[in-house]
């Protein structure tokens, strides 16, 4: 398998694009899935004592990131169900510390901390017909990656043809500020964990198998995830 390391998602697995938002092509929910480190987890699960404290913490964690290459605005966290805010939770796992576990049925991504807890992030996941499960690993990482729509997507959505040679990194790029590219047996799966700027997408299935976190959450996870990190995607 030939991989273009300058692009984050060029082809398809079994004819399915690894990242393809739903129609309409340029809608906020279905296409602008792009676009830093949060200041900490939101309390150990159940320890936040009031909605006011939760909202105050969310305002800090999901605030603007003006020092990024493309300054990232604050998230309108009021559009996100509070259960999807980043927090530390009790999580029993046999996986090694640092392992990423994706639970698409609950729209969560966990980073195992190795002490009976995990950092939990709210996520968007693959829509019906595009879900997958299994073990992978982070084969490479990229910041503000170029996105190239696969041929299958261009065939279905001709509007994407203008990006056939790649869409440069930026706030409007579907891969956003940070991307973890998932590999199996030395080959790029074309699936990614990417940064989303769409708060309303969190807790829903909208992609062709990729997993999106809010930009601030993705930057937090990215900074703590080295290449070769194991990724476990649970059955939906």
From TrEMBL:
Gene3D superfamilies: L,D-transpeptidase catalytic domain-like. Pfam families: YkuD. Pathway: Cell wall biogenesis; peptidoglycan biosynthesis. The keyword Glycosyltransferase applies. PROSITE patterns: LD_TPASE, TAT. It comes from the Bacteria. Residues 98-234 form the L,D-TPase catalytic domain. CDD domains: YkuD_like. Keywords: Cell shape, Cell wall biogenesis/degradation, Glycosyltransferase, Hydrolase, Peptidoglycan synthesis, Transferase. PANTHER family: L,D-TRANSPEPTIDASE (PTHR30582), L,D-TRANSPEPTIDASE ERFK_SRFK-RELATED (PTHR30582:SF24). Belongs to the YkuD family. This is L,D-TPase catalytic domain-containing protein. It comes from Methylorubrum suomiense. The lineage of its organism: Bacteria, Pseudomonadati, Pseudomonadota, Alphaproteobacteria, Hyphomicrobiales.
């Amino acid at each position: 398998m030939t991989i273009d390391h300058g692009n984050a998602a060029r082809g398809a697995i079994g004819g399915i694009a690894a990242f393809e938002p739903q129609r309409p092509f340029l809608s906020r929910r279905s296409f602008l899935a792009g676009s830093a480190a949060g200041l900490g987890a939101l309390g150990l699960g159940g320890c936040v004592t009031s909605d006011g404290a939760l909202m105050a913490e969310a305002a800090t964690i999901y605030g603007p990131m003006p020092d990024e290459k493309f300054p990232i605005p604050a998230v309108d966290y009021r559009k996100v169900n509070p259960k999807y805010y980043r927090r530390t939770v009790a999580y029993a796992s046999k996986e090694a510390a640092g392992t990423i576990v994706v639970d698409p049925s609950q729209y969560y991504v966990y980073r195992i901390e190795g002490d009976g807890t995990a950092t939990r992030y709210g996520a968007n996941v693959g829509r019906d017909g595009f879900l997958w499960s299994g073990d992978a690993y982070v084969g490479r990482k990229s910041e503000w990656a170029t996105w190239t729509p696969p041929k299958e997507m261009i065939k279905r959505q001709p509007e994407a043809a203008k990006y056939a040679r790649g869409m440069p990194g930026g706030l409007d790029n579907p891969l956003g500020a940070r991307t973890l590219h998932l590999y199996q047996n030395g080959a790029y799966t074309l699936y990614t964990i990417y940064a989303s700027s769409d708060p309303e997408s969190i807790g829903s299935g909208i992609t062709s198998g990729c997993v999106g976190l809010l930009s601030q959450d993705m930057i937090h996870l990215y900074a703590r995830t080295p290449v070769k990190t194991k990724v476990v995607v649970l059955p939906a």
